[in-house]
Write a structure and sequence with these properties.
With 174 residues, this protein is an alpha/beta fold. The chain is built from 3 helices and 9 strands, in the order E-H-E-H-E-E-E-H-E-E-E-E. Helices cover 22% and strands 34% of the residues. The longest helix is centred in the N-terminal third of the chain and has 18 residues. The structure holds inosinic acid (IMP) and magnesium ion.
Length: 174
């Protein structure tokens, strides 16, 4: 069986949308410093591109979480593999994620980070698959809503591969 990747969103489309998100975030956080929290590894490509488009002061931190359960279905029990380096107290936190799928990982993380007394906490995701939602999550900034297909590229992997693609694609098995 061979594998190929069909383009869903081109590099130009993704870059254009990230620029728009950066402009919206810069407007909304006027006069503040925005503290970007990247969820590794998938969020890292998006966060770097987004940060370059934000014109208010930016600080950044990184965390890594893995959800217990099978690889295709997240359980909602999230293990923090790497926690943030810095406290969130009184900061304007913007969580940056690659994709919101069932919503279980994000709803857990938002609650956990919200307990650290940030001044505010919002969520920015490059992709959203609303059809797949099982847990309610408020997404403040969305790049693209996509259908229920398994996507790769721009940080997203299939078995750790394809993260480096500069576009979003769907893996197809032939
Ligand atoms: P959930 O929202 O808790 O179900 O899990 C979201 C996580 O599952 C994301 O952060 C991704 O790591 C992974 N994920 C969900 N959908 C996809 C996909 O289409 N491609 C690659 N990873 C995905
Ligand atoms: Mg992820």
């Amino acid at each position: 069986m061979s594998e190929s990747v069909r383009v869903l969103l081109t590099e130009e489309e993704v870059d254009k949308r990230i620029k728009e998100l950066g402009e919206a975030i810069s407007r909304d956080y006027q006069g503040e410093t925005v503290h970007l929290v990247c969820v590794l590894k998938g969020g890292v490509f998006f966060m770097c591109e987004l940060a370059k488009r934000i014109t208010v002061p930016v600080t950044m931190d990184f965390m890594s979480a893995s959800s217990y359960g099978s690889s295709t279905k997240s359980s909602g029990v999230v293990k923090i593999v790497k926690d943030l380096d810095e406290p969130l107290k009184d900061r304007h936190v913007l969580i940056v994620e690659d994709i919101v799928d069932s919503g279980r990982t994000l709803s857990y993380l938002i609650k956990m980070l919200g307990d650290r007394e940030p001044a505010s906490i919002k969520l920015c995701t490059l992709l959203d698959k609303p059809e797949r939602r099982v847990t309610d999550v408020k997404v403040d900034y969305t790049g693209f809503e996509i259908p229920d297909e398994f996507v790769v590229g721009y940080g997203l992997d299939y078995d750790q591969r394809y993260r480096n693609l500069p576009y979003i694609g769907v893996v197809e098995f032939n």
